[in-house]
Design a protein that fits this description.
The protein is an alpha/beta fold. It is built from 7 helices and 12 strands. The strands form 3 sheets. Strands 6-7-8-3-9-10 form a 6-stranded mixed β-sheet, with helices on both faces. A 4-stranded antiparallel β-sheet has the order 2-1-4-5, with helices on one face. The structure holds adenosine-5'-triphosphate (ATP).
Length: 285
């Protein structure tokens, strides 16, 4: 199935928040794009504005400047063309797995038979059909998050927005979830914008990665991942993969150190010994 929808375009985006201490500039002059059917990750130091950007694409947060378009339309609020998955499972505990998945379709007025068919097809793709009548409390963390993904996909969005969806899972479950997600993404050919702190995860999953600077978040680097698909966990040991990990780690380290350096100097830690590196990066000794 060829994809023609799901194009995200952010041009010169600024996002700021009013805080008690003044205005917090979270994101500054960010331009990025996701092509239809592409898998793109955002990675960067903590607090660099990744979630703010994603919330803006989801329509939960307003931008203060620039333009943010999905399929050429300016984003003015949440919409069923964009599915969202957060780290917290956010399932309705009083509903069965299938009813959770059907919820968005019910809200759209889809008939019961159609809802059930759509939910069961997607649950089958995620290996969860045998659990359709279970309640969330009867599922493991990995299963809950699979239900969360299936629920976000139920209304057939063109775009899937995922904010650290596997952050709460153990590494073994996380690795299985990565494979399940890539399989589903390849079948459904939708666009994915994915936030993670895990460099290996971002490389394993993505076609491209945007590395952000420390706050205010700007795009520091855009990295294409030239690894073939389907991706297999063994690829993580190839020289190409290892080289990408090293490159991204270095980029993020520079930013984390820069952020830490400014926090320490603002916090009056002058007594700490600091060494300034060649790129003006402060290294705490
Ligand atoms: N609603 C808000 N009000 C005030 N400040 C906010 C709000 N939301 C985010 N911020 C601030 O904006 C900055 C960016 O936050 P954001 O959550 O987008 O970063 P992040 O890169 O997703 O962080 P992390 O990786 O730790 O999840 C932070 O300094 C945060 O405290």
């Amino acid at each position: 199935m060829s994809t023609v929808f799901g194009h995200i375009e952010a041009r010169d985006i600024n996002i700021s928040f009013k805080a008690r201490s003044g205005t917090v500039q979270a994101v500054q002059s960010v331009s990025l794009h996701v092509q239809p059917g592409e898998f793109v990750s955002l990675i960067g130091p903590s607090g660099c504005g990744k979630s703010s950007l994603m919330n803006a694409v989801a329509g939960f947060t307003k931008v203060n400047g620039g333009s943010l378009l999905v399929d050429g339309k300016r984003i003015s609020g949440p919409g069923s063309d964009r599915g969202v998955v957060f780290q917290q499972y956010s399932l309705f505990p009083w509903m069965t797995v299938r009813k959770n998945v059907e919820f968005g379709l019910k809200m759209k007025g889809v008939s019961q038979t159609q809802r059930q068919t759509q939910a069961r097809t997607l649950l089958g793709l995620a290996g969860l059909l045998a659990f359709e009548d279970h309640y969330p409390s009867q599922l493991s963390g990995g299963m809950k998050q699979r239900v969360g993904i299936v629920r976000a996909l139920a209304t057939s969005p063109q775009v899937l927005l995922m904010d650290e969806p596997f952050g709460a899972l153990d590494s073994q479950t996380r690795s299985v979830m990565q494979e399940i997600l890539t399989n589903m993404w390849q079948r459904l050919r939708l666009s994915v914008l994915f936030i993670t702190h895990d460099i290996e995860e971002s490389i394993f999953l993505s076609d491209r990665i945007y590395v952000m600077t420390a706050r205010p978040g700007r795009v520091k680097a855009e990295i294409a991942v030239p690894l073939p698909r389907p991706r297999k966990p063994e690829m993580m040991e190839t020289p190409e993969f290892v080289a990408l990990v090293r490159e991204i780690k270095q980029l993020i380290r520079e930013e984390s150190l820069a952020a830490m350096g400014s926090e320490l100097s603002q916090g009056g830690c002058e007594g700490l010994s600091m060494e300034v590196g060649p790129a003006g990066v402060s290294h705490v000794l």
